Predict the 3D structure of the following.
Amino acid sequence: MGTLSAINIMPIKWILHWRPIVGTTVNTQILTEVSQCVESINGVKDGTWKNTLRFYKPILKEQTNALEFSQNYLGISLQEQPNKYYMTIRGQQLIVEAESSMQKIMETLQSYKLRVALNFEGFQYRLGDFRLRVEKVVPVNSENLRGIIMEMEYLPISLWETSHQIMGEFFDIWKEALGKRSLPGHFVHMEPNFAEYGLSDQYTSQHTVVQYDSIITQMVATAISSQRVRD
Amino acid sequence: MECVVQGIIETQHVEALEILLQGLCGVHKQSLRIHELCLKSVPNLGLVASEIRLLCDLEQPEPAWTVRHVGGPMRGAGAEQISVLVRPMQESKISKNALRLFYSLGYKLDHEQLRVGFAFHFQRGAQITVTVSSINKMLKPHAIDDAVPVTPGIQLVEVTAPASSENYNEVVASVSSFCEYLAPLLHLSKPGVSTGVVPTAAAAAASLMSDGGGTK
């Protein structure tokens, strides 16, 4: 854990991901319906949004003794922190905060190579003290929809525990509103154990990165296994 | 990228060098205490062997970490002719768990050192930094409190300036002309091309101490 300098306290945020009913996949129709639903509960569109996640894997001269380290890492650029770059190693509950030049340094080392790069992009809505973002997950340079994510921010609070009740209540309202549309799936909230990453109750962008990491790890595992099936 | 030259000076003349630098730069020196860890990739990792440096600035209220990558020096006839080394250099501030990150990524500690001294940062045609420091080695891993000098009685002087592919010629010229002012006390050259201490150092130092010391 550890921040670079001044602690960047951010409003509390839950990141939700769309879990399709077994046998169905995500599609742009669901994305459209979700956006319409935000507008139907008086969400006012006030901007666009884009975060980029890149999966890297080690470049090995020989595959045999790979277990010595064999860590994949995730590099994340967040729109809310344009000058920073985050790296996580999930198996070690490790999150590192660096400047954006870190991405270039890692590329220069030529010890890891890019495996998958995904954009999380979409629109941002304001709804009273809440800010909602509906994001599609697409590979960089492609429009092939891989998933749907929602960010749910409550601006007045930045303490995770304190916010639980109001976030939970708002999530219920949201689920109820969306439920009327009978879409083939639902939004899921996973709560990572931030303490395992050395993060405190005070919400920062590092908490956001850890949430993204949890969600994307599942998503990429699914993508890779489905690709193996196709191959 | 960065432009860099290095030289050495006997510790007994460091005070004179400080007076000279103070006069030339017009700024106050800053204390320097940096724990530097050099990490290398394990043999199986990467297209090429790679090396990375983690610098921990111990002068800050909270130790502040930086990761630095330095590339090979610029080559070619043009590079041979200039007296300053030009090389790619990239830096990023990083959170304090950087060492754990690189261990996890397959890097191992090659060596570490503690640099103690002072630095001047100033603008003189380029953004120049002069550091004067003693290099200390650790007798036990990370034991910075028990570090001992690698070369007792000798300190390392380094002059660096950030540059780009567009402006490095001007930066090289600025660094070179600045180095001439220091010539009576020490000779600065490309890293790895050590030229030792200069014979005029003692006389130049004595002169500086009497002129510039004021109350001395």
